[in-house]
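Throughout this chapter, every protein is written as a compact record of paired, labelled lines. The reader may check this reading against the record printed directly beneath this paragraph:
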Amino acid sequence: MHKIVTNEEWLAARKGFLAKEKEFTRLRDELARQRRELPWVKVDKTYVFDGPNGKESLSDLFAGRSQLIVNHFMFGADWNEGCPSCSFWADTYNGVVVHLEHRDASFVVISRAPLEKLEAYKKRMGWSFKWVSALHNDFNRDYHVSFTPEEQKAAVYNYEAGGFGSSEAPGVSVFARDGAGNIFHTYSCYARGLDTLNGAYQLLDLLPKGRDEQGLPHPMAWVRRHDKYE
């Protein structure tokens, strides 16, 4: 139940809340600036992925640009489908790729499932973004989003050791490449750090009911692959 007021009273309340929103926006801008100033780590290890055009190195994934965003999509080698929650996020990727490319940034989704499974699922879901397989390299393990059964018990995820309940985990990693071809890892985020990348969640947060996830077994229990809603 919400208090019902006059338009004048509503406007006064809205302006008061606007001040808080502006404060949050300024803080977000400052965090983004500090993120860009984080130190980098040189990537000396060679990674070769299975892609739609054959074998591709991490450098190839930059596609001639100096920046690369990698979405770590949960799709295990022995899984038949991609993660429903990761699919929820991925539904927003198609339209943004061209805009990123015009800001000197490439975007790629990486999973451990074999390429043929990725291609079939991508076709089923109607996605057009680039998706490559890390089945035959250590990329996902090195960036803490894939774990063996033994590693799960004490896995490091979101920069904390404490185990993880699945062999695969979600995340985003960012890389930069200099003029000499050197590659650097500049940033990774996991768990709730991925929230702002989901456009649907940002829209739901504007609604009176919000995400409306209270009382569910877990917050995203309602999420289905977009072809599975009834």
Observations:
- Helices lie at 7-36, 58-61, 84-90, 97-101, 115-125, 139-142, 149-152, 199-204.
- The chain is about 30% helix and 20% strand.
- The beta strands are 41-42, 48-51, 54-57, 67-72, 105-111, 131-133, 156-157, 160-161, 171-177, 183-190.
